[in-house]
Amino acid sequence: MKQFSYTITDPVGIHARPAGILVKAVKPFESTCKITKGDKTVDLRKLMALMGMGIKCGDTVQVTIEGPDEDTAAETIEKFFKDNL
Amino acid sequence: MDYRKCAQEIYDLVGKRENLVSAAHCATRLRLVTNDNSKVNVKKLENVDGVKGVFSSNGQLQIILGTGTVNKVYEEFLSISGMTAATKADVKAAAAAKQPLPFRMVKALGDVFVPILPAIVAAGLIMGLLEGMTKIWPDMANSGTYQIFHLFSNAAFVFLPILVAVSAARVFGGNIFLGAVIGMIMVHTDLVNAWSVAGMIENGQAIPQADVWFGLYKINMTGYQGHVIPVIIAVWFMCFIEKKLHKIIPEMIDLFVTPLVTVLLTGYLTLTIFGPIFSKLEEWVLVGVQWLITIPWGIGAALAALVYPLTVICGIHHMYNTVEIGMISNTGLNTWMPIASSANFAQGAACFAVALKTKDKKFKSMALPSSFSAFLGITEPAIFGVNLRLMRPLICGMIGGAVGAAVGSVFGIGATAYGVTGLFGFLITTRFALQYAIMLAVSFAVAFILSWILHKDKTDEDDGSAEASEDTSEDSPALPEITCEKGKVYAPIKGNVIPSAKIPDETFAAGVLGEGIGIEPSQGIVYAPFDGEISSTTDTKHAIGVSSPDGMELLIHVGVNTVAMNGDGFELFCAEGDKVKAGQKLMTFDIEKIKSAGYSTTTAVLVTNSDDYSELDIKEGVCEPLDCVVTCKE
Predict the structure, then answer these.
(1) Which residues of B touch A (CB under 8 A)?
(2) Residue B573: inside a domain, yes or no?
(3) Neighboring chain A residues of B558 at a CB cutoff of 8 Å
């Protein structure tokens, strides 16, 4: 299991568009990817659920990745967060 | 007090879940709609601890619990019954469906008429003014400008069946263009204009006829100009057939078979059965009123004026010209005109009283010009738009008209011509100016006073001011209920549908968030696109996610980049986790505000899990709320 924390810097937070690209970025991996904010955790593949989190600029989230390709997945996804969010 | 126990007892006594349609509460009452009110044990219900009274009104069962108590009992009631919270509007809609047939028919009539009122108010006022002016300056009738204006004034009435048909098709859920075709058939130029018929008979001309049903009988080839009821019946029938056919005809040939059969069947039945039955009724009414007015001492006139507005509702009042022409050629004095005039004026007065009394601004702005039009002799706007919908003003107007007509008849008022009533009637009753004025004053006074006393604004008579404002949101009428099919998305917004690839935003256009459509909205209301659950909303209120029971995930994102508006101009009517029914209002947004903030209003309606489907069929072009716009194929 791989895990990292990240504080969102994108001014609109994880809204429709960023959420859309994020889900697309996660899709190719086999591992289960989850995002947690506070006491709420959702599957990163589920766009609606992700948007429902209402993650805003300045919020800190934990991303958990578990599965056969967790190493590459964690690396790619963390990079994605840094580049885009 | 034990709220749970109270709720449980109510639940048992109203016939449990299987007898419940919906539940809501207001400040003091629990409002339930039941399948069968007779299964409710009212006696025992009244004795439940906490219940202060029980009665049923407008198809709703209302249980008085009192402020502070009702909401707690309601919550328990929901948890016991497993029902979801209904808005008061839902309860009302469910109750409306349970009203007796005549009420529903009057309501349908109103629903059909209200959207076309602006058209006929305009036409009515122009027509009244023009007719009056030509009586003052007869030469004017020869001027070209007059002829052009005259054309404007009667266009809406000559083609009224088309307007009515389109509106009726919308109300009854058929294709509005097929509806228009039915309307057009009824006023086709190859048919003799209904308004010319009286003149043709007078001149001894034959009305062309046609064999129908393999020579079984003949019908007169006359049009239905100015008619309302036969058109609504025809279109209701058309929608019925159309919907049936859509169900049974295979999709491959549906597009050409359904409209073809619908138009053929409806058109033929209309011209050969509905129409002729109606024409026969008209003739009887005509014979009837001619007999009526022979009753002396003003009684006959009063009775004739009493029924006059009803004949306007049926659209047969223009036939009275025949009576008037007959009177003028026999005695030189048209004694029918004062009756009609009194009846019309009284309807105007009743409508005027409502207009002055109502606090509903929107209703006032409609009722006022409608009453003016009636004073000039064109009563359709007042009758259909106001009086008939509220019923009481109609009756008040009928009584006022009857009293006025009796007065007129006692005075022996007669007109020297025909064609105008109301204020302009003075021009053709010059010998009786004073008497005519008294008659109008009497009918006005009676109708106005009665209507003023009896009219009550439709508020929740029981629980005061708090909720009165809710009913005024007439700009978002309840949408008809629809049955949702799997994989279909029904337009959440009124507007113009474009493929998502044409949305002016690359992320949406590229399909990053899924495939679907964009809607260029013409109205700022978002309705639920299918029965489902709200899966996400945002603090900025501009986007809603909805998921259907069969797994479709839909994102409705109003405008492009509108996240930056931070919720300004948006209002949400749902929350995450809410169960919603197709057509339920989810959000309102201010189109102007979005535009002035510099953003596109194009709303993305995207199936976010479109990867799960093999194909998405979309229907481009203008859409009404709940038109099917996307079909997903697995």
Answers:
(1) 507, 512-514, 535-540, 543, 545, 547, 553, 555, 557, 563-564, 576, 608-609
(2) yes
(3) none
For residue range B102-133, list pLDDT tens digits in order.
Answer: 667 777 777 787 777 778 777 777 877 787 77
Chain B nearest C-alpha distance from A73 (Å): 20
Is the CB of residue A42 less than 8 Å away from at least one CB of chain B?
no
Helix (H) or strand (E) holding B403: helix B392-411
CATH 3.30.1340.10 correct for A2-84 = yes
B128/B124 Cα distance (integer angstroms): 6
pLDDT digits (tens, 9 = 90+) for B54-111: 877 666 788 888 766 787 888 888 888 777 665 555 565 666 665 667 667 777 777 7
Contacts of B509 in chain A (CB under 8 A): none
B576 and B618 part of one domain:
yes
- Domain residue ranges of chain A, discontinuous segments joined by +: 2-84
Question: Is the pTM higher than 0.90?
Answer: no
Is B411 found in the same domain as B312?
yes
> Is B173 a member of any domain?
no
The catalytic site residues of B sit at: 26, 557
Same domain, B427 and B575: no
DSSP per-residue string spanning chain A:
-EEEEEE--STT-S-HHHHHHHHHHHTT--SEEEEEETTEEEETT-HHHHHHT---TT-EEEEEEESTTHHHHHHHHHHHHHHH-
Is there a domain that residue B15 lies in? yes
ipTM at complex level: 0.75
Q: In this complex, do A47 and B555 lie within 8 Å of one another by their Cβ atoms?
A: yes
